[in-house]
Amino acid sequence: MNRSFVVLLLATAICLSCQAISRAASGAAVSSGTDKPTMVDWNLSVVDINRNCASEIAAATTRLESVLKSPVKRRTFRNTLMPLEDMASDLSDRLAGEQMLAFVSTDKDVRSAAFACQSKTGDFAAEYSARPDLYKALKAVKASNTARTDAAKKLLTIWLNGSIRSGAGLPEPQRSRFIELSKKLNDLGNKFGENIGNDESTITITKAQAAGLPSDLLANSKQTADGGYIVAVNESTSSQFMENERDSAARKTFYITYNNRQAQKNLPILHEAIGVRDELAHLLGYPTWAAYVLADRMALRPERVTSFLSDLDQKLLPKAREELATLASLKAKDTGAPNATIDAWDVVYYDNMLNKTKYAVDTNEIRKYFPAEHTIDAVLKIYSRVLSVNFARVTPGTGPNPDVLEYAVNDAHSGKLLGTFYLDLYPRPGKFSHFANFPYVGARRMPNGSYRPPVSMIIGNWSKPAPGKPSLLSHSEVEVFFHEFGHNMAALLTTAPYETLGGFKRDFVEAPSQMLENWVWDPQILKQLSANVDTGQPLPDALIQKMIAARYVDNAYFTTRQIMLATIDMDYHTEGPNVDTTAVWAKVARETTPLPLAEGIHPEAAFGHLFGYDAGYYGYLWSKVYAQDMFSAFKQGGLESPVVGMRYRQDILEPAQTYDADTLVKRFLGRPMRPDAFYEEFGIEAART
User: Fold this and answer.
1) Is the pTM value of this prediction over 0.85?
2) Which of 452, 470, 504 marks a domain boundary?
3) Rg (Cα) of the chain, in Å, rounded?
C-alpha cells in the first residue's frame, strides 16, 4: 500500500489530505544533475526544522507573488505554469528531510516539529491553491494553447482542476470558509497520525501464556519479575503474537488493546474531520465527500464503488461463512468444546493452525528459509533482471539511522543514475509503525535542463532478531516487502518531466505492486528468495507446493474484511456529518462479513487510511482488478523476462500520470483491461456492467 502514506501534491491542491508529507515541502535536499544523487539532511534539530520550514515557505510565497503579479501581456505555459510548478517542487524538495522526520525520528520533539511543518506547508497549499488570481492565470494559460506536449497538457489539467477543487472559483465568503476548513482538516489529519505514531500500548502476559511465542518476539519484550512479559501492541508484533498465542484470553486482550489504540484522542478528531469534509464537499456543490473525492478518480462516482463492493461481497460471503465454519471445527477439536464458535481474536490463530494441520505449512518453520539479508538481496536481483536496473549499496549510508540501508539505482544499459532509496526495516520508538513506501523527493526536469534523480524510502517494522541471530521473515512479510519494492520502483523509474506527474491516481496506485505480489508464489522465484538459515538450502519443492496449495486458504473471508473496510470508509463519507463511526463499523461488519464487531472496541481510531485514503480505501480492490490482468502479460512472456519487464517499465512506470491509467494499461497489454483474471482468483464470474 503506498499503504497509509500519501504525498501531498501542492500543485494539484490535495491539501485536504495534509496529514501526509506535503509535496510542497530546506535547504535539506540538494538537487543535482543526473550524475549525482539527491542528498537529504537528517541531522535536524527542532530549531532547524522550524527555521527552515518558515524560510522556505516565505521564499515560495515570494516566488508565487512574483509569478501572479508579473505584468506579462500574455499568460503562457512557460512564463506562468512552469515557474509555479518549479516553486511547488522546490518547496517539496527543500523540506523533504524536515517533513520525513515525522515518520523516522526517535525524538518526540523533532517528530512534533516535523508534523507542525507538514501543517504549515498544508496551510500554505490551502491558501494559494484557492487564490482567484491563480485560477485566472491558469485559465489564461489554457486559453493561450501553449501547453503543447502531452505532459504539459496533463500538467495544466491537474493544476487547473486542483485550483477549482480547492475553492478558487467560489465567491466570498464561501472561498474563505473553504480555506479555513482545509486548514482545519490538515491539522486534524496531522494530529490523528501523530497520535498513532506516539502510541505505546502494551499488554502483560504470564510465563505460561508466553509458551509457544517466537523467541525473537520475547527477546524484544521486557520480562516481568514473575517470568511474564510486557509485549508491545503494534504492527510489528501483531501477526507473530496472534498466530502463535495459544491462550484465548491473551489473544483477546491483545486484540482489544490493538483495536482501541488512541481511541480517546482520535475518535473526536475523526468525527470532526468527517464533518469538515462534508461541509467542504457541499461548498463545491457535491452532495457528499465521497462524491467530491471520486469525481477526480477512475471510479468517478460513489455508486460505481458501492456496486462493485456489494457485488463482490454477495459472491464471496457464502464461501467466507464456510471458511469460518471450518475454523470453528478446528477450534472445537483444539479446545474440546463441541459447539465452539470463532471470535475475532481466533481467526489468525486458527487460520495458522489450519495451514499447519491440513497443508503442513508451518509459518515458523518457513521463517527459517527467509533470513532478511538474503531475502533483500534476492529481491533486488529479481527486480534488477526484470526492470533492467542495477542496485549499488552506498556505504557509509546517509540515512536517518545507522540501521538504515542506502542504495543507488542505475540503468543497466546506460549506467545512468536513476535514483536513490533507503530501507528502514526495523522498529524504533516513535517511528511510523506500518510498512509503506515513501517517495519523498520526486523526479523532475530541473530549470537548467538536467534531470534530478528521485529519492524514496521503504519504512518497515520487521521483528528485530534475537541477539546474535538474523531476522527471519514470514512468507507474508516477504510478500509485503516485494509489494512495497514495487512502489519503490514506480517512484524511481518515472521519466515524467514534472514532479506533479509522478505516481498514479489513488485507485490505480496499488495495481503495479499488487501485480508483483504474484512473483512470490512462483516456484522458481521462491527458490531464489529462500535460503535456510542453518544450511543455506532453498525451500524444498514439496514445501513450495504445499505453500502454493495453501495460498487461498480463507481468502474469501479476508477479502470480505477488505470489502468491509472499503464500505465503512464509503459510509463514513456518504452519510453526512453526524456519523456514529463505531455504530457504522458494527453495522457494516454484520452485513459484509461472517463476524460481528467485538464489543468495546473502536478500531477506526487507529485506522490511518481514514486520512489520506478517505473515500478511497476501495482502491485496494479496484486496482487489483487491473493488477491481475496486467500479470497476464508476464505469465505469457515469463516472470523474469527483461523484454516484458522493459515494456512494463516503459508503458506503465515511466509515463506515470502523463496519461490516464486505462491508456497505460491498454498500451502495455495491447487491449483494454479485462476483469476476468481478478474474479477467477475467487472462482466466480466477473461482474458485467
Assistant:
1) yes
2) 504
3) 25
Q: Is the bond into 302 cis (omega within 30 degrees of 0)?
A: no
Based on the fold, state whether residues 82 and 24 are members of the same structural domain.
yes
Q: What is the pLDDT of residues 317-353, one digit of tens each?
A: 999 999 999 999 999 999 999 999 999 999 999 999 9
Task: With a cut of 50, say whether residue 632 has pLDDT above it.
Answer: yes
My answer on whether 184 and 216 are in the same domain is no
Planar angle of CA 454, 119, 106, nearest 5 degrees = 70
DSSP-derived secondary structure letter, 391: E
Spatial distance between the Cα atoms of 653 and 638, rounded to a whole number of angstroms: 19
Domain count, the chain: 3
Asked if residue 288 is part of any domain, the answer here is no
Active-site amino acid positions: 484
Distance in angstroms (rounded) separating the CA atoms of residues 490 and 503: 7
48 and 132 share one domain: yes
Domain that holds residue 207: 202-252
* Residues 249-266: tens digit of each pLDDT: 999 999 999 999 999 999
Query: Would residue 539 count as lying in a domain?
Result: no
How many of the other CB atoms lie within 10 Å of CB of 673? 18
The three grid cell numbers given for residue 580, joined into one nine-digit string: 456514529
Give the mean model confidence (pLDDT) for residues 3-27. 29
Placement of cell 517511528 in the chain: 431
Please determine, for residue 122, whether its predicted confidence score (pLDDT) is greater than 50. yes
Q: What is the pLDDT of residue 31?
A: 44
* Residue-by-residue DSSP string for 244-279: H---HHHHHHHHHHHTTTTHHHHHHHHHHHHHHHHH
